[in-house]
Sequence to fold (198 residues):
Amino acid sequence: MDVYEAIRKRRSIRRFQDKAVPWEALEKCIDAARLAPSGRNQQVGEYIVINDAEVLPGVFENIGGSAKQPPDKGGPGPIQHPRAYIIVLINKEWEGDANRRRVSLYDIGMAAENIILTAHEQGIGTCPILMFNEADLRLLLEVPESHDIVLVIAMGYPDESPVADVADDSLNIYVDEKGVRHVPKRQLADIIHRNGFK
Ligand SMILES: Cc1cc2nc3c(=O)[nH]c(=O)nc-3n(C[C@H](O)[C@H](O)[C@H](O)COP(=O)(O)O)c2cc1C
Fold:
């Protein structure tokens, strides 16, 4: 799949098919994360990969935002929950100095996009989630204090086909009467400056 085409077609997915995600597909995503650009090449990320049906519900309990909305508000129905998660950690020992957190978060963002696009190429939908209960997830997954949980990526085979619209006044996402999620994106002409800010 062409990279630009993948970027154009990818949308965050919050309703998933009742179908397991194989370990090999998830491992490939982590391999892509491993190869992402990294400030001073410190590669501060570690990843907990979850596809065990017994562990999934506990993670779902601890996420929020649109990914957890009731079905009539665009969230998943009872059998549309994520079928895998990648929990993104920063290893504080590898990070060294806590003042480097700003750089570390760029690292994580770039690694996360590699994960998201590698999943997309394999037909797997994703939703990056910042609204999560870190304390309870830490307990559930036995994450040591040496690591911070910085992002959750919900994953699974898509059971919805959201569309990117051209934004006019509002950037609000909405679900139409047919259940299609619409994601307004700013227009190219509104964000590009040619050879200087004018
Ligand atoms: C840093 C970040 C945090 C996000 N956190 C959440 C979240 O907590 N819950 C959720 O449902 N979606 C979350 N999202 C997904 C965004 O809502 C989504 O990317 C945005 O609406 C644009 O839609 P698209 O990804 O389909 O282009 C997050 C995305 C990013 C980049």
Notes: Strands lie at 45-50, 84-91, 125-129, 147-156, 163-166, 174-175, 181-185. The radius of gyration is 18 Å. The pocket of flavin mononucleotide is lined by residues 11-12, 14, 64-67, 127-131, 162, 173, 183 (CB under 6 Å). The helical segments are 3-9, 23-34, 56-61, 92-95, 101-121, 134-141, 188-191.
